[in-house]
TrEMBL record:
<feature type="domain" description="Lipoyl-binding">
    <location>
        <begin position="2"/>
        <end position="78"/>
    </location>
</feature>
<dbReference type="InterPro" id="IPR011053">
    <property type="entry name" value="Single_hybrid_motif"/>
</dbReference>
<dbReference type="InterPro" id="IPR006257">
    <property type="entry name" value="LAT1"/>
</dbReference>
<feature type="compositionally biased region" description="Basic and acidic residues">
    <location>
        <begin position="93"/>
        <end position="113"/>
    </location>
</feature>
<dbReference type="Pfam" id="PF00364">
    <property type="entry name" value="Biotin_lipoyl"/>
</dbReference>
<protein>
    <recommendedName>
        <fullName>Acetyltransferase component of pyruvate dehydrogenase complex</fullName>
        <ecNumber>2.3.1.12</ecNumber>
    </recommendedName>
</protein>
<comment type="subunit">
    <text>Forms a 24-polypeptide structural core with octahedral symmetry.</text>
</comment>
<dbReference type="Pfam" id="PF00198">
    <property type="entry name" value="2-oxoacid_dh"/>
</dbReference>
<dbReference type="GO" id="GO:0045254">
    <property type="term" value="C:pyruvate dehydrogenase complex"/>
</dbReference>
<keyword id="KW-0012">Acyltransferase</keyword>
<dbReference type="Pfam" id="PF02817">
    <property type="entry name" value="E3_binding"/>
</dbReference>
<dbReference type="InterPro" id="IPR003016">
    <property type="entry name" value="2-oxoA_DH_lipoyl-BS"/>
</dbReference>
<dbReference type="InterPro" id="IPR023213">
    <property type="entry name" value="CAT-like_dom_sf"/>
</dbReference>
<keyword id="KW-0450">Lipoyl</keyword>
<dbReference type="InterPro" id="IPR036625">
    <property type="entry name" value="E3-bd_dom_sf"/>
</dbReference>
<dbReference type="GO" id="GO:0006086">
    <property type="term" value="P:pyruvate decarboxylation to acetyl-CoA"/>
</dbReference>
<dbReference type="InterPro" id="IPR004167">
    <property type="entry name" value="PSBD"/>
</dbReference>
Length: 403
């Protein structure tokens, strides 16, 4: 018997995704556990494995289709020996239009409906013979299916191509050729980023603390480290190590707001903000306080590479107890970052720069960096955050104490 292959939920928060690529074609033999497609979630591109074996009879959702709901049919798998007859019967059941109201109407109800002058509503559109994908396209583009007429599918069913032709020939399509604007589709990742950041700024009472740290000793330690071990490390690697040190010294900062209670995190897991094509992702350095500077550097390089390739696994970016966001490579002196709930804080790192500094009676040139901490005042008080920043500044300015 044919079996529907459903859009999988590849993360606990996933509600829809993009079917990025099919790795098998219609008519191909499929084994249980074989990777058959690539699915883009709101955070990464992940492989989708077949649960059953059989023959891929029909692909219902083509590659590069966005907004596919979890548990929506994306393909049909046939048993050995099944062919077009079984497939067509099964597809006819999937494509049957749904009628939301089968209850017989009373004469009064008929009279009321006949007097309504409003355009066809969602119930009338459900009675139109159209494929689910055609209905989705019509809904997105506010197309009244009752005005399309007979479709090019079997028995006049409206299919995807009917809607695409209608959109290409519409006055709006002609106008688009004369416009200087471009509509950019909202990716699943961008939609989630927008939702979470709005929620954070609306619901989390942010407050900010800034310190300027001198980098002479850190830059000297960085050079010695690279010369001795022949491994390149960055200022950001030192900052991550210093944050782990300061969180260990100030466990009251290593907390999360969970609504009904405050979670005291038992491990120091530092998220690192990474810019990618679709937005931002925060892979995690787990137990950062227990790692050497070299291990942190190697782990950051590995995670940044996987983030840019879109191959991070959910366990590598879901969670974390503290975030570091660095815009120093873009020449930004200082900035404030938005907290990623349920975390209670995020550190914004500016660029390392040279400034004139007064030492005694002399003016000398010093290398400095400005660090700005954003805190959730529901769970972190000013004095707690200030002590954390003292520990952080001490570790940055005298890295020997944390190495």
């Amino acid at each position: 018997m044919p079996v529907k292959i459903l859009m999988p939920a590849l993360s606990p928060t996933m509600k829809e995704g993009t079917l990025a690529k099919w790795l098998v074609s219609e008519g191909a033999k499929v084994e249980a556990g074989q990777v058959i497609a690539e699915i883009e979630t709101d955070k990464a591109t992940m492989e989708f494995e077949a649960v059953d074996e059989g023959v891929l009879g029909k692909i219902l959702i083509p590659a590069k289709t966005a907004g596919v709901k979890v548990n929506e049919p994306i393909a049909v798998l046939l048993d050995d020996g099944e062919g077009n007859k079984e497939l067509e019967e099964f597809l006819s059941e999937i494509d049957k239009p749904t009628v939301t109201d089968d209850k017989p109407k009373t004469p009064n109800e008929d009279k009321i409906e006949n007097n309504l002058a409003s355009p066809p509503d969602a119930r009338q559109q459900d009675r139109i013979v159209a494929t689910p994908l055609a209905k989705k396209i019509a809904s997105i583009n506010s197309i009244d299916l009752s005005l399309v007429g007979s479709g090019s599918g079997p028995n006049g069913r409206i299919v995807k191509n009917d809607l695409l032709k209608l959109l290409d020939n519409s006055p709006q399509a002609e106008m688009r050729g004369h416009c200087t604007e471009t509509s950019i589709p909202v990716s699943p990742m961008r939609r989630v980023i927008a939702q979470r950041l709005v929620e954070s700024k609306q619901n989390v009472p942010h407050f900010y603390l800034s310190v300027t740290c001198y980098l002479q000793h850190l830059l000297s330690a960085k050079k010695k480290f690279e010369d001795c071990l022949e491994k390149r490390v960055t200022v950001n690697d030192f900052v991550i190590k210093a944050c782990a040190f300061a969180l260990h010294k100030n466990p009251a900062m290593n907390v999360s707001w969970e609504g009904d209670f405050i979670r005291q995190n038992q491990t120091i897991d530092i998220s690192v903000a990474v810019a990618i094509a679709d937005g931002l992702i925060t892979p995690i350095i787990f137990s950062a306080d227990k790692l050497s500077l070299a291990s942190i550097s190697e782990k950051v390089k590995e995670l940044v590479g996987k983030a840019k390739m879109g191959t991070l696994q959910p366990r590598e970016f879901q969670g974390g107890s503290f975030t570091v966001s660095n815009l120093g490579m873009y020449g930004i002196d200082e900035f404030t970052a938005i907290i990623n709930p349920p975390q209670a804080a995020i550190l914004a790192v500016g660029t390392a720069r040279k400034v004139p500094t007064v030492f005694g009676d002399e003016i000398v040139v010093s290398d400095v960096v400005t660090l700005t901490l954003s805190c959730d005042h529901r769970v972190v008080d000013g004095a707690v955050a200030a002590r954390f920043m003292q520990s952080l500044k001490k570790a940055i300015e005298d890295p020997v104490i944390m190495l």
